[in-house]
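New to this. Please check this fold:
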Amino acid sequence: MKSLVQLHSEIQTLQQQAAELRTREFDRTVAEIVAQMAAFGITIAQIKDAMKRAPLKGARGKKGKRGAKPGRPKAKGAAKAGAKAAAKTKAKAKPGKTGTRKPAAIKFRGPNGEAWSGRGKTPTWLRAQIEGGKTADEFRV
């Protein structure tokens, strides 16, 4: 049986080999893509446009983020391009789709100016009024 130190050493060696292989395969893949683009006369602008219309499935890393996976060399300017894309996405956000909701309309108002939208638990001021013999409809706005 191998010792823990030996296993860690083997793991480190294998991880280095995997990183080197990943880099070689990455470079070869990029070269193949460039050759295909040249053969078909495809420009980078056309690729970017196509990616906006239909992002590739499976082009995401472990956490669902697009871009380089761990150990893969990043393209020059990749960080700037990502920041620009994020800024464009924020600028194109549609009204009402910002992730925040406007408050619900007030449906009940108490004798001291308390307000309740009718959502969630009944507030104590309304519960006390109902227990005192009044109805909730008497406080409806």
